[in-house]
Write a structure and sequence with these properties.
54% helix, alpha+beta, 3 strands, 17% strand, globular
Length: 116
């Protein structure tokens, strides 16, 4: 049973999953949208929502936590200077997942993750 196991493993070991989530979140922050498979989009959505919530706080400790997760100064600066203040009055739901249809090569369900 998977009671209280809320992490979505998306078919990867921990280090690979952490890297994929961080890279997709960086793409979302820098370009406001990212196209990927539906399962990864749902996993990244949870990760990105938490990072944006930290950016709304705007303090130095939150900035260090986000940098530890993303390891990209440019993404962290944009997150804290533009995206965090944009969602200051929003209580959550900063991202949206839209299905795009099957991928041509292998038929995987594609989705676009975007900032609201």
């Amino acid at each position: 049973m998977r009671h209280r196991n809320d992490i979505d493993k998306i078919g990867m070991v921990k280090a690979h999953r952490r890297s994929v989530l961080a890279n997709l979140t960086k793409g979302l922050i820098l370009y406001d949208k990212v196209d990927t498979t539906f399962g990864r989009a749902k996993a990244v959505q949870r990760y990105a929502e938490r990072v944006i919530t930290l950016a709304r706080r705007g303090d130095q400790h939150a900035r260090r936590i986000v940098f530890a997760r993303l390891q990209d100064k440019q993404a962290v600066d944009k997150l804290f200077n533009e995206i965090g203040p944009r969602y200051k009055d929003r209580p959550g739901g900063y991202t949206r997942v839209v299905k795009l249809g099957p991928r041509r090569g292998d038929g995987a369900e594609l989705a676009r993750l975007m900032l609201v």
